[in-house]
Amino acid sequence: MKRRPFGWTGVPVPVVGQGTWNLERDERARVVVALRAGLDQGMTHIDTAEMYGSGVVEELVGEAIAGRRDEVFLASKVLPSNASFERVLRACEASLRRLRTDRLDLYLLHWPGTHPLERTLAAFERLVRDGKIRFYGVSNFDVEEMARALAIAGERGIACNQVLYHLQERSIEHAVATWCAEHEIAVVGYSPFGSGRFPAAGSAGGRLLAAIARAHGATPRAVALAFLVRLPGLFTIPKASRPPHVLDNAAAGTLELTDDDMVRLETAFPRGRPRAGVPML
Ligand SMILES: NC(=O)c1ccc[n+]([C@@H]2O[C@H](COP(=O)([O-])OP(=O)(O)OC[C@H]3O[C@@H](n4cnc5c(N)ncnc54)[C@H](OP(=O)(O)O)[C@@H]3O)[C@@H](O)[C@H]2O)c1
User: Fold this and answer.
1) Tell me, what CATH number does 140's domain have?
2) Is the whole model's pTM more than 0.70, yes or no?
């Protein structure tokens, strides 16, 4: 599994991690096995959130990483409705309890909300000082919102922006991804398979993915993931509740696409026009 520095933090993080949204809907024992299989493959960046299954997913992740905490780059998110100073501190404690750990590697504001960002970030700073979190960041922030966050936190305050990024939704490449690269802020792309809208096998894009996959002895999904982490500073967090899917996704972590593959994928899945803000799922 390829690792790269997580932005300015310098922490080596696998380019392909594991998402956990909706995992509470799947069979619990199988999900735990799947997450552990991902860890075995080096997919040690696990992304969760207090919102997922209203805490049930964090409990499930806690079960999966029990005894293996030190291997994991563990990320969770606070809901915007809990983003006041006091509530962030409380929400973090609750996440830590459900995850059965004493610290998070990364704590994110799930999306911009109405609580003053100054107070949210002050709470994150307090959590860093108290050793409850190593780094903090944001999610679903556009360039303007990132600039505001940076103005409050200073350079090397915000470690990451987690944003929607898949083959058919590349609009972050117009502005937010380059802005983050300039400030050495890691970009974690979420819903890399479009959250269930992966290009159909019979479509032109699906046929191209299959052809490239065949040439590499990989699968179309692994090709898509390798494309999504082709630039430095980019990470991806597919969600897979089935162990064979996890192994398939892990293969992207060593897959080297050729320049020709890249050009063909760029053409088949164009970046599209810039749009205001960042798209959200
Ligand atoms: N910050 C935010 O606002 C935000 C928003 C959305 C998502 N996220 C994060 O991003 C993660 C990923 O996004 P997502 O959950 O929306 O969906 P996704 O990763 O785009 O797609 C997940 C779907 O793809 C299937 N799948 C995964 N690997 C596969 C494979 N190798 N072959 C065939 N099917 C495969 C999964 O099936 P199985 O489960 O059956 O394996 C599931 O149905 C989330 O879990 C969450 O951690 C963050």
Assistant:
1) 3.20.20.100
2) yes
